[in-house]
Amino acid sequence: MSFAHHDQSLEVDQKMPRKIVIVGGGLSGLSAAECLVRLYGEKVQVTGLEARRSAGGRFGSFYDPRVDVTLDYCQHVTMGCCVNFIDLLDRCGLRKYWVISSSLAFSHASTGITVTKPWRWLPAPFHQLPLLWRMPFLSMAERYMVQRGMFRLMRHVKIADEDISAATWLKVHGQSNQVIENFWDVFSFSALGESTREISVDALKHLFVVGFAGNHRSADIWVPTKPLSEIFGVQLVNHLQRAGVRMIRGCSVRSVHRDENGYRINCNAGELHTCDHVISAVPWHQIQRIICEIPELAYLGKVKSLPSSEITGVHLWFDRSLGDFDQLITVGTVAQWIFRPTWTAHESDSNDCVSSSKRGYYYQVVISGSQKWKSMDHTTLINQLKHEIRQVSPQARDATLLSYRVVTDPRATIICNHQNERLRPEAGTPLPSLHLAGDWTATGWPSTMEGAVISGQKAVANLAAQENWTKPEPISTAPLGSLSRRIIR
Ligand SMILES: Cc1cc2nc3c(=O)[nH]c(=O)nc-3n(C[C@H](O)[C@H](O)[C@H](O)COP(=O)(O)OP(=O)(O)OC[C@H]3O[C@@H](n4cnc5c(N)ncnc54)[C@H](O)[C@@H]3O)c2cc1C
């Protein structure tokens, strides 16, 4: 009798939508929500809890009343190889807010600006030869050295527990300090937020092989044409809400508890949410605070101290245009990228953003690994950047800086080194129905927007496996061209 009763309740239970709470409304949480409602529709009732007043997390925007504009904390870009991020944009109708460029502009004090564009008529990976051949600030011998290093990297096979830095590996493979600084570090800082001294060989290989050598489009640079708060905080959230996700902002989760009926989530305003599954999508340094009373998750205490890297965005307004570029990678300077965010370039688009004629010409300098310059006060930093900009742009020599703002995120990304890789946890936890997402979890990717999207998908795959639901499609990888497939090991 009791057996029959049990069966009946199970049947009823299975027809009920599963209540899922996602803690954290950054990209990983939003990706998990999108994946859940798209794949499992009626079977799920999804609630997103975000501590801030708007979703988006680390890549949000802020309103600067001094110039009356909305600005991203820091310029974000992505690459053509970030296929899961791009698929998410496509599914949610957000691709239209991005411009794609296949050329890269480099500047160096001694040689000015050089623009490189891949040769699409050559098969990948040889389409990237201009990147190696057209760097005037490298001597011919150095360019040849880079080519050799690149080839060795493509053939490098991961050694289990390989614990040397990318810089050490590069030196072993014949790269001089000068070439490491003027070539390898330039890319490593721009894409991975740190120098080759800090990152693993695997991360370097991932960047150059998946990012640059994989296929004709993998190194394309995608730049947003609207503030990120508009693209993700408004447009993506609207899309999710239309699909049935309940998004509660301004709701900071204090603690997550487990009992025989599922999970209880306590929020700062005294609000209590109960659910069948929890997806935690908060950053590595905040997770322990909310799950501290669950002994099975004590192992997550270690991730709190994952070494991370600082990124600084310096917002600058000049009285004139600094030249005909939208983005510039600067070599041998404190600045690493100079962007002219595209939505500021046209006065007709100026309703929610800066207008070039009224408030000056807006540029943003990005400095990754900026902890290195911590001892520099803002005035010295700004003077240094003005000097560097004047060296590469003739128009800047007579330009006046009207206003500036320095925004630093001290824990922007976790460092992609061997030690960190070992600490990055999988989506599944020892507790049933509690899943982890976040760019810091084990995604196989550096801590990037692509990594965050993948982490949300992996958390949902883990949840679906526990519920015995149809498996989601496997995580996509950027395809390799046929020649790249043969060369890359
Ligand atoms: C300055 C900077 C520049 C970057 N540039 C790039 C780039 O160019 N390209 C790129 O691909 N990536 C870049 N990144 C990395 C990228 O922004 C991150 O990888 C990505 O946004 C991480 O998303 P996430 O959801 O994992 O984490 P987060 O964005 O940190 O989201 C976590 C969310 O959880 C919320 N939260 C925390 N605690 C609680 C709580 N108790 N209750 C409720 N909510 C909570 C937070 O408010 C936050 O919204 C950059 C990052 C920074 C900081």
Order of strands in the sheet with the most strands? 8-7-16-17-18-15-19
- Ranges with pLDDT <50 over ≥5 residues? 1-12, 345-357
Major beta-sheet overview = 7 strands, mixed
Quote the distance from N terminus to C terminus: 61 Å
Number of strands: 20
Please identify, by name, the CATH architecture of the largest domain.
Answer: 3-Layer(bba) Sandwich
DSSP summary: helix tally: 15
CATH superfamily of the largest domain: FAD/NAD(P)-binding domain
What is the beta-strand fraction? 15-25%
Radius of gyration: 24 Å
Helix content: 25-40%
Average predicted confidence as pLDDT: 90
Task: Identify every distinct bound molecule in the structure, by name, code or SMILES.
Answer: flavin-adenine dinucleotide
How is this fold's topology laid out?
Blueprint: H1 2-15, E1 18-23, H2 27-40, E2 44-50, E3 61-64, E4 69-72, E5 78-79, H3 83-91, E6 98-101, E7 104-108, E8 112-116, H4 129-133, H5 140-155, H6 166-172, H7 177-192, H8 201-213, E9 221-224, H9 228-242, E10 246-249, E11 253-259, E12 262-267, E13 272-275, E14 277-280, H10 287-291, E15 308-318, E16 327-331, E17 337-339, H11 356-359, E18 361-368, H12 378-392, E19 401-414, H13 418-423, E20 434-436, H14 449-467, H15 482-487
Parallel strand pairs: 1-2, 1-14, 2-10, 7-16, 14-20
Antiparallel strand pairs: 3-4, 5-9, 6-9, 7-8, 11-12, 12-13, 15-18, 15-19, 16-17, 17-18
Helix pairs in contact: 2-9, 2-14, 3-14
Bound molecules: flavin-adenine dinucleotide.
Flavin-adenine dinucleotide binds next to helix 2, strand 2, strand 19 and helix 14.
